[in-house]
Amino acid sequence: MFGSSAKQDNVLLDQPGRLLPRWQKHPLWDRLAIRRHARRLLKELHLQSDHHITHIFHPAYWPYVEALGSKFVVYHKYDAFQTAPGWTNELSSHEDALVDRADLVITATTNAISPRHRKKPFLELTNGVNYEAFRNGYKKPCPEDLARVPYPRIGYTGNVTPKVDLGLIARLAAKRPDWNWVFVGIVALPKEAQDNLTARAKIELDTCRSLPNIYFLGDKAYSELPAYISHMDVNCMCYRFTKGWWNSGGYPLKLHEYLAAGKPIVSVQLAHLKNLANVLAMASNDNDWLTALEHALLDDGIGSVKERRSVARNHDWTLIVNRLEESLFSMLQTRNTVCN
């Protein structure tokens, strides 16, 4: 009733209980719920405060820092939260406190860090790829549901949320009915529109579903993705993008998976991808997308298979994890030296 934990892929996943849930409108109750939750986590993990690191991925969890009592705190910021819908003054205060307290700040891109926080040193750590798995995806047979989609295939792997520019896809699909768009992932739009963006996305989704050359294949296991990506003709990153919007600080997980597969890539323009202009095409409007996709389909797009895979190989998860470990060990040694 108070929650439990289950091990999955060598990670202990917490399942909050139904008794004493968080209630942020009532601070005293909320703090009590957090303290109880923290005590249970420490007990289940058999940890003492001097022997663990609290690794926080969002300022909303700042209240747990004090409750867990860790000697070391890492703030891993994966998006420009400060420009996201729902950002509040309270979250801003939490982030200020978190950055001040953190022994190590990590981000996927410099753009994610608020200007007022950039005085503090941070580690820029991009997303990576299981290189060998995605490099060899072409060796697997084409999945049955994808095999039923005619060529040419333009693919997108990932959850379909309001961040995906479904309006763009609908317009491009209508202009080029001979091209087939394939979405591999959960359609994760809420049943009820919570804001104007979600309402717009739902209308665009209905339009996409009405077109015969757009296919939604649903969720797939991670182990299946290399085959899907490798059996596309082009892979794309078709996000909505407005300068200064929250996804301006994100680093797409699918990027190096696409590169490892070796197929041409077309992406929305993201500032932190400009240094990869030799291996992918970037488009900012419908005409750019049509031109880039045609180039990819007819002439294999920007860069060669070898060049794309070379970039991906340098972002294998083993290398990314090694960098993270080095930074964590450095953090531990520095803090222990100061304390001694």
Short description:
It contains 12 helices and 12 strands. The protein is an alpha/beta fold and 340 residues long. It is globular.
Order of helices and strands: EEHEHEHEEHHEHEHEHEHEEHHH
CATH class of the largest domain: Alpha Beta
Radius of gyration: 22 Å
What is the helix fraction of residues, given as a range? Answer: 25-40%
Whole-number tally of structural domains: 2
* Residue windows where pLDDT falls under 50 for at least 5 positions: none
Beta-strand share of residues: 15-25%
The CATH architecture of the largest domain would be: 3-Layer(aba) Sandwich
Structure description:
The chain has 340 residues and is of the alpha/beta class. The chain has 2 domains: 3-127, no CATH class; 131-313, Glycogen Phosphorylase B (Rossmann fold), CATH 3.40.50.2000. The chain has 12 helices and 12 strands. It has helices at 27-45, 62-68, 89-101, 131-135, 144-147, 166-175, 196-210, 225-230, 254-261, 286-299, 305-313, 317-339, and strands spanning 3-8, 11-16, 53-56, 72-77, 104-107, 123-124, 153-157, 180-184, 214-218, 234-237, 265-268, 281-283. A 6-stranded parallel β-sheet has the order 9-8-7-10-11-12, with helices on both faces. β7 (153-157), α6 and β8 (180-184) form a beta-alpha-beta unit. α1 (27-45) packs across α2 (62-68) and α6 (166-175) packs parallel to α7. The protein is globular.
Can you tag this structure with a few keywords?
340 residues; 16% strand; 6-stranded parallel sheet; Rossmann fold; alpha/beta; globular
